[in-house]
Write a structure and sequence with these properties.
- The structure is a single chain.
- The protein is mainly α.
- It folds into three domains: about 210 residues; about 110 residues, no CATH class; about 280 residues, no CATH class.
- Helix content is about 65%, strand content about 5%.
- It is built from 34 helices and eight strands.
- Strand 5 and strand 6 form a beta hairpin.
C-alpha cells in the first residue's frame, strides 16, 4: 500500500497545477486594469449618476411636445438607469465604510470625501422636478419607492455614524442628508398622489342642488326656524368671467386662454379619471367654446392637457404648494452654504485629500445648486405661476419675471403639433425587407423597426384643427334643423353612417354598418388612397394662403380641389396610424391588425394584376381603380393562409371606389366620413389611455376627445339636474 501512494499523489498534484494554469489563462483583464477599475468605479458611477440627472432635467419635460422616438428612448433609458446607478454607488460606499479607519483607529482623511458623497446620492434618488414617472404605471410603484426611502435613509445614517468625526465635513454631511431626504420623500409623495386611486379620490364629488338645499334647510331648522316648501324653477347663469375679461397680452401671450383653461380644470380632471360630470359643467363649457375661435379653443385644450401632464408625470402637485416652494428655497440656500463652506475647507486642507475627489465633490455641489436654480426658474415661468399672479393681480411681479427670466425666443409648448401618418399604398409598393428580420421578430421589435410613421407639415396642422372645430361646432345646429338626435350616440355612434344618411348614400352603409370598425378604417383608407392618387394633384400645384385662424384658403379652382383631396388624405392616413400603432385607443373589441400581411398582400396583388413590379402610387391606384370587383373573388396568391382578410380589404376598397364614382362631390363625403370616424374613435377611448399618450408628444385624438367633451359630446354627463327645487321660506 505504501509503495502505491506516490503514484496516487502525483496525478493529483499535476491536476492542481493544470487547474491553476487554466484559471490564470481564463483571466481576461490584467491585474493592473482591475486595480484601476477598483479605484475609479465609484467615481465613474457618481459622475454617471450626475449625468443622468442633467439629461432628465433637460429632456424630462420636453417629451410632452416632442414626438420623436429618439427622445422617448433617451428618457426611458436614462430614467431606468438613474436609480440603479445611484443605488450601486451608495452600495459601494456602504460596503467600503468599514475600511475608512487607519492603523490608529481614526477615520482616514482620504475617505472623508467619499463618505460625503452618500447624501448627494440621496439627492439624486429624489429625482428631478421635470419627471417623476416615465409612464402611468410608475406612479403605482410608490410603495416600492417608500421602502427605498426608508432603506436609503438608514443606510446613509449608518455611513454618517460609522465615519463620524468632529470635522466640518461631517456637519455638512448632515445638512445635505436632510436636503436629500426631503427631496426623496417629496418624490414618493408625488408618485402616491398621481397613482390612479389617489388621483381619482382627490377629485371632490359633484354636489347636487338638492343636497345643497337640504343642508341649508337642516341648518335653519337647527336655528329654530319653521320651514315650508314650494316649487320654483332654477335658471343657472354660468360664470364666464374667466373668458370675457381681456388680459394684457404683454403679461402672457395666451393669458385669456390660460384663465379659461384653469376655470375648466376640475372638469378636465374628472374626464381623465373617467368620472361622471354634471350638466352644469356641460352648459358652462359649451357656452365658452361656442364663443371661441378654432385657434383659441385648441390653445385652451393644449393648456389643459399640459396641466394634466404635470399632475401625472412631474412634481407639480408638490411644487405649486407652500411646502414645495419652501423646500426649494431652503434647499437652494443650504446647498449654497455647503458649497461655500466646502470651498473654504477645501482650500485650507486640499493637500490632505485627493485632488480628483475634491474636484468631483465640487462638481457635484455646483451642479446640484444649478439644477435647483433651474427648477426654481421653471417654477416661476410655469403656467401655474402665471395663472396665480394674473388671478391675484400681481401684474408687476409677472412683468418683472418675463423681462428677467423669459427669453424672447422661448415659447411654452404643451404638445408636439404633429399628426403621424401611415399610407397602406405607399408601404405596399416601397417597403424593402428589414435586415435580420428573423432575429428582430424573435426579439419582438420587428414591427417597431419596420413600420415607422411620418408627420404632416406643421403649417397644415392648424388647417386640420380648424376643419375639425367647425364641423363639431355646427353639427348640433345641423342636427336640430334636420330633426336628428343631438346626443353623442346619434352624432358619432354610427361610425360614418350619419354622414352617409346626410348625403343620401345609404347604398354605402355596408362599408360602416356591416363591418367592424377596423375593417371600415382599412377599406375607406385604401379607397381614399386610390381616389387620391388616381386624381392626383401635386402639392406644389396647390396655391393657398393661411388666415388668422390657421385655415388654408385656396387661390383658384384647381387648388381648391387639391386642398380638399389633401385634407381627406391627412385624415385617412392618421386613422390608419391609430389602427396600426395605437389600436388600444380605438373602440374595444377590435382585433389585432397584422399590417405587414395586409400591405404585403396588396403589393403582391398589384404586381400580379399589373404583370410587373410597380413603385409609383399613381400607377398602382390606376390599376386598382380599373379592377372589377367580381374578379377579386377568384384572385389567388402565393400564401393562401393570409389572403382571406387582405383579399377582403382589397375587394371592398375597390367596390367602394367604384360606388363613389368620378363626381367631385365625393370628396366632401369622404371628408365628413373621416371626421365622423375620428369623432367616434375619440369618444370611445378611455381617459387613462389618453393620459398615456401625453408622454409621447400628445395625440390629435386626445385633443378631439377633449374638444368633444367641451361641446357636450361625451357619455360623462350622466347626472340629471333637478329643475324643480325646494326653497326654504323663513317665518
Amino acid at each position: 500500500m505504501e509503495a502505491k501512494s506516490p503514484k496516487i499523489v502525483i496525478p493529483i498534484v499535476v491536476s492542481s497545477i493544470m487547474f491553476i494554469k487554466k484559471k490564470r489563462l481564463m483571466e481576461v483583464f490584467p491585474s493592473r486594469w482591475r486595480n484601476l477599475w477598483t479605484e475609479w468605479q465609484l467615481r465613474l458611477l457618481i459622475l454617471l449618476s450626475l449625468t443622468t440627472q442633467i439629461i432628465l432635467v433637460i429632456l424630462g419635460n420636453r417629451r410632452k411636445y416632442i414626438a420623436g422616438a429618439w427622445i422617448r428612448f433617451t428618457v426611458w433609458s436614462t430614467y431606468l438607469l438613474a436609480d440603479s446607478i445611484a443605488l450601486m454607488a451608495a452600495g459601494i460606499i456602504s460596503t467600503d465604510v468599514g475600511e475608512v479607519y487607519n492603523a490608529n483607529g481614526l477615520v482616514d482623511e482620504k475617505y472623508e470625501l467619499i463618505i460625503f458623497w452618500a447624501p448627494l446620492l440621496l439627492l439624486h434618488l429624489g429625482g428631478t422636478d421635470t419627471i417623476t414617472a416615465y409612464s402611468l404605471e410608475d406612479n403605482e410603484l410608490w410603495k416600492r419607492h417608500l421602502l427605498g426611502v426608508v432603506i436609503q435613509a438608514f443606510a446613509t445614517l449608518y455611513i454618517w455614524l460609522t465615519a463620524w468625526t468632529s470635522s466640518t465635513l461631517s456637519l455638512l454631511f448632515i445638512l445635505m442628508f436632510f436636503v436629500g431626504l426631503g427631496k426623496y420623500c417629496e418624490r414618493v409623495w408625488v408618485l402616491y398622489l398621481a397613482s390612479e386611486k389617489t388621483f381619482r379620490e382627490s377629485i371632490p364629488d359633484i354636489p347636487t342642488n338638492d343636497s345643497k338645499i337640504m343642508e341649508k334647510c337642516k341648518l335653519k331648522q337647527l336655528e329654530g326656524y319653521h320651514l315650508t316648501t314650494h316649487q320654483v324653477f332654477e335658471v343657472e347663469v354660468p360664470d364666464h368671467s374667466a373668458n370675457t375679461s381681456s388680459t394684457d397680452e404683454s403679461l402672457h401671450p395666451d393669458a385669456d386662454e390660460l384663465l379659461t383653461a384653469y376655470s375648466l380644470v376640475d372638469m378636465v380632471k374628472r374626464l381623465f379619471s373617467d368620472l361622471i360630470l354634471g350638466y352644469q359643467d356641460r352648459d358652462a363649457s359649451r357656452e365658452i367654446f361656442e364663443r371661441l375661435s378654432s385657434k383659441k379653443a385648441f390653445k385652451v385644450i393644449e393648456i389643459e392637457l399640459g396641466f394634466i401632464y404635470d399632475l401625472l408625470y412631474t412634481k407639480a402637485k408638490a411644487i405649486y404648494s407652500p411646502w414645495g416652494i419652501a423646500r426649494r428655497i431652503i434647499g437652494i440656500f443650504i446647498i449654497f452654504i455647503v458649497l461655500v463652506l466646502f470651498i473654504i475647507l477645501g482650500v485650507r486642507e486640499i493637500h490632505q485629500r485627493s485632488k480628483i475627489d475634491v474636484i468631483i465633490t465640487l462638481v457635484l455641489l455646483v451642479v446640484a445648486l444649478l439644477l435647483e436654480l433651474c427648477a426654481f426658474r421653471e417654477l416661476l415661468l410655469s403656467d401655474h405661476t402665471t395663472h396665480w399672479l394674473i388671478k391675484h393681480k400681481k401684474t408687476n411681479f409677472l412683468q418683472h419675471i418675463n423681462r428677467t427670466l423669459r427669453h424672447k425666443w422661448q415659447k411654452r409648448r404643451n404638445w408636439s403639433h404633429s399628426i403621424s401618418q401611415f399610407s397602406l399604398l405607399s408601404f405596399s409598393l416601397g417597403k424593402t425587407p428589414v435586415p435580420y428580420f428573423g432575429i428582430l421578430k424573435m426579439l419582438g421589435i420587428d414591427e417597431m423597426l419596420e413600420i415607422q410613421p411620418y408627420d404632416i407639415p406643421l403649417r397644415d396642422i392648424d388647417d386640420i384643427k380648424y376643419m375639425i372645430f367647425e364641423d363639431m361646432k355646427n353639427l348640433r345646429d345641423w342636427a336640430k334643423v334636420n330633426n336628428c338626435g343631438t346626443e353623442l350616440k346619434d352624432l358619432y355612434g354610427r361610425k360614418g353612417g350619419r354622414t352617409l344618411t346626410r348625403y343620401k348614400r345609404e347604398d354605402l352603409d355596408w362599408s360602416v354598418d356591416k363591418l367592424g370598425f377596423d375593417q371600415s378604417i382599412l377599406i375607406w383608407h385604401l379607397a381614399t388612397e386610390i381616389c387620391y392618387f388616381h386624381e392626383y394633384i401635386k402639392p406644389d400645384e396647390i396655391s393657398t394662403i393661411v388666415n388668422s385662424e390657421g385655415k388654408r384658403e385656396s387661390q383658384n379652382e384647381r387648388s381648391a380641389k387639391g386642398l380638399m383631396r389633401q385634407r381627406c388624405n391627412y385624415l385617412s392616413r392618421y386613422m390608419l396610424y391609430l389602427l396600426v400603432r395605437r389600436p388600444n385607443m380605438l373602440p374595444i373589441g377590435m382585433g389585432h391588425i397584422k399590417f405587414r400581411d395586409i400591405y404585403t398582400e396588396v403589393g403582391d396583388f398589384i404586381e400580379e394584376h399589373n404583370g410587373k413590379s410597380v413603385r409609383d402610387e399613381k400607377e398602382a391606384s390606376d390599376t386598382l381603380s380599373k379592377v372589377k370587383t367580381k374578379v377579386m373573388l377568384a384572385v389567388g396568391g402565393r400564401d393562401r393562409s393570409r389572403r382571406d382578410r387582405s383579399n377582403n380589404v382589397i375587394f371592398h376598397a375597390c367596390k367602394l371606389v367604384s360606388a363613389l364614382g368620378e363626381d367631385e362631390k365625393k370628396w366632401e363625403l369622404i371628408k365628413n366620413v373621416w371626421l365622423e370616424m375620428l369623432g367616434h374613435a375619440a369618444s370611445q377611448c378611455k381617459g387613462r389611455l389618453h393620459a398615456q399618450q401625453l408622454r409621447r408628444g400628445g395625440e390629435l385624438l386626445t385633443h378631439v376627445w377633449l374638444l368633444m367633451a367641451h361641446f357636450g359630446l361625451t357619455d360623462h354627463f350622466q347626472i340629471p339636474r333637478s329643475r324643480a327645487i325646494a326653497e326654504a321660506i323663513i317665518r
